[in-house]
Write a structure and sequence with these properties.
The protein has 435 residues and is mostly helical. It has a domain at 274-382: Cytochrome P450-Terp, domain 2 (Cytochrome p450-Terp, domain 2). 59% of the residues lie in helices and 2% in strands. It contains 20 helices and 2 strands. It has helices at 4-25, 36-40, 69-75, 87-96, 102-114, 120-127, 135-146, 151-157, 166-192, 206-214, 219-232, 240-249, 255-266, 274-289, 296-308, 326-338, 343-362, 373-382, 391-412, 425-431; strands spanning 54-57, 61-64. The protein has a two-stranded antiparallel sheet with strand order 1-2. The structure holds alpha-fluoro-carboxymethyldethia coenzyme a complex. Alpha-fluoro-carboxymethyldethia coenzyme a complex binds next to loops.
């Protein structure tokens, strides 16, 4: 099939059968116990969700449908031979579990362009906010405005049978993914440029088009955007944005409602907003010493200053990873290839040497290593996207490619309303024998 929907139509019954079999024959398989520590510790380590697109190993990092980032870079079609994986290719892979060929990816590119038309009132909804509103607030508002055209909501009101929920969910998810770059680019141009919309280019792929609509046409920046969107798309199911989308979707809220909620979680500084915080932190280092070319001692002093004022070092640490994030590593490789002499890239490299031993010494940080957000800012800055408050919007566009497919599968597999059990503090004390 060159058409993604036809591919899904074939796959859905097969997957439904697998889930049915698991529920029927293995319902009581023990997946690990729940401890008090988990309940008070943000549910770390508690297996509680099924997520089809990707899984994170603490040491090795992300695998998209079983494939590491270097494997994806090798196997997935790029804009040119040997180019970075196209986000369309990742979308195809996450949804179907199959590696698409160039023809399939080109057909998906075209389909996304066809779906990309943004209703006028979505721009107006954004315009109702002051230009000073945070870009993520404007983005979430824009997504809520897009919800007006939800096919799922229409189908539900029309009494669609639950066995067909996944079909309008597919329509909504693809329309949402297709329209986000236009909404996101509008916000950028509204806040930082002349406010004029740069129309979609019918010859460009998804990542390149987003860069183009932002106002960037340097082929190297287009290539970085393809990589950026691909690696930020998915990071298994338990992170705040993905889990939020899944949770909200479980009440049969449509993909727009679920994704807007996910964006609001992504906008928190411990999650997606960390990319903004990293570049701001790096700029403050440069401001403090007057140059990015600083000594290890100066950098170490600055890190201690951050920690002593009760703040985290942004871009370091992770809820699951216990090693350097491969999403960091592939951005570093991109930088080594294209901007090895950039002073801020060199500073990022130095930070990677100095931060981990300091965090380790604190004795409480489970992972002192850099995560995805530690690197993206200096690359964007190098290519002229210097406005760090916008960075989380880029992350948000990418995340739709991870949560959209899962929402489709959630509906195809009839995943139920999510409703875990909570306990009161008194009950917890009683269970612990501490009261
Ligand atoms: N700087 C300073 N202290 C840190 C730290 C850091 N980078 N990372 C963890 N710690 C501290 C925690 O604040 C916590 O302190 P406390 O006991 O006094 O509250 C302690 O170490 C134990 O935390 P830990 O179990 O290692 O980490 P968590 O799973 O609770 O939290 C995050 C993980 C990512 C939230 C944490 O490492 C952090 O705040 N990092 C900085 C922000 C960041 O980069 N976020 C982006 C993460 C990710 F890549 C993404 O979602 O985009």
């Amino acid at each position: 099939n060159t058409d993604l929907y036809s591919e899904m139509k074939e796959l859905v019954p097969e997957y439904q059968e697998r889930v049915k079999k698991l529920k029927k024959d293995h319902a009581n398989v023990d997946l690990g116990k729940t401890t008090l520590d988990m309940v008070l510790g943000g549910m770390r380590g508690m297996t509680a969700l099924v997520w089809l697109g990707s899984a994170v190993d603490p040491d090795e990092g992300i695998r998209f449908r079983g494939m590491t980032i270097p494997e994806c870079q090798k196997a997935l079609p790029g804009a040119f031979p040997g180019g970075e994986p196209l986000p369309e290719a990742i979308l195809w892979l996450l949804l179907t579990g199959k590696i698409p060929n160039k023809e399939q990816v080109d057909s998906l590119s075209q389909e996304l362009r066809r779906r990309a038309k943004i209703p006028e009132y979505a721009y107006k909804a954004i315009d109702a906010l002051p230009v000073s509103a945070h870009p993520m607030t404007q983005f979430s508002t824009g997504v809520m405005a897009l919800q007006v055209e939800s096919e799922f909501q229409k189908a539900y009101e029309g009494g669609v049978h639950k066995s067909r929920y996944w079909e309008p969910t597919y329509e909504d998810s693809l329309n949402l993914i297709a329209r986000l770059p236009g909404i996101a680019a509008y916000i950028y141009r509204r806040i930082y440029k002349d406010g004029k919309i740069i129309p979609l280019d019918d010859t460009l792929d998804y990542g390149a088009n987003y860069a183009h609509m932002l106002g960037f046409d340097d082929p190297e920046m287009l290539e970085f955007m393809r990589l950026y969107i691909s690696i930020h798309s998915d990071h298994e199911g338990g992170n705040v944005s993905s889990h939020t989308a899944h949770l909200v979707g479980s009440s049969l809220s449509d993909p727009y409602l679920a994704f807007a909620a996910a964006l609001n979680g992504l906008a928190g500084p411990l999650h997606g907003l960390a990319n903004q915080e990293v570049l701001r932190w790096i700029r403050n280092v440069v401001k403090e010493f007057g140059t990015p070319n600083i000594s290890t001692e100066q950098l170490s002093d600055y890190i201690h200053k951050t920690l002593n004022s009760g703040q985290v070092v942004p871009g370091y640490g992770h809820g699951v990873l216990r090693n350097t994030d491969p999403r960091y590593t592939c951005q570093r490789e991109f930088a080594l290839k294209h901007l090895p002499n950039d002073p801020l890239f060199q500073l990022v490299s130095k930070i990677k040497e100095v931060v981990p031993p300091i965090l380790t010494k604190l004795g409480k940080v489970k992972s002192p290593w850099p995560n995805v957000d530690a690197h993206s800012g200096v690359l964007l800055n190098y290519y002229g996207l210097t406005e760090e408050n916008y960075y989380t919007v880029l992350f948000g566009v990418a995340r739709s490619i991870g949560v959209g497919p899962q929402l489709i599968w959630d509906r195809a597999l009839g995943m139920p309303l999510e409703r875990p059990k909570s306990v009161t503090l008194e009950k917890l004390e009683k269970l612990a024998g501490a009261s």
